Amino acid sequence: QVELAQSGGGLVQPGGSLTLSCVPNGNIFSHYAISWYRQAPGKQRELVARLSAMGQTRYLDSVRGRFTISRDDAKNTLYLIMNSLQPDDTAVYYCNANLDNNWIYWGQGTQVTVSS
Q1: What is the pLDDT of residues 16-53, one digit of tens each?
Q2: Contact predicate 20/7, CB 8 Å
């Protein structure tokens, strides 16, 4: 099955930047929609950004203009580039792969903390 290995979380000051990475164990980008979700304590999990197999993107309103989802096919890696980070961005971030809602896989999650 598909496995998603995440990296790049950590502590950053407000206004700072951080980039998350997600590496699948196979070449799935041509078929799967790839997404980043996040969940803060006491909050529901929410979709942050999605990149379809056709290259279409979708962003949560509160991150649009600050976050960028992209993929590097040569490195077989998905990225979430986060700029102008705010305390409300603090959450556990998860990589997700979805094929037709029949095959769904999750990364292990990584903590992003925005604090001074």
Answers
A1: 999 999 999 998 988 999 999 999 999 999 999 999 99
A2: yes
Cα 94 to the center of its chain, rounded Å: 6
Mean pLDDT over the full length of the chain = 96
Which tokens in the block code for residue 47? Answer: 């979709």
The neighbour count for residue 83, using CB atoms within 10 Å, is: 14
CB–CB of 53/29 below 8 Å? yes
What letters, b where the CB count within 10 A reaches 16 and e where it falls short, cover 27-39? ebbeebbbbbbbe
Total length of the chain: 116
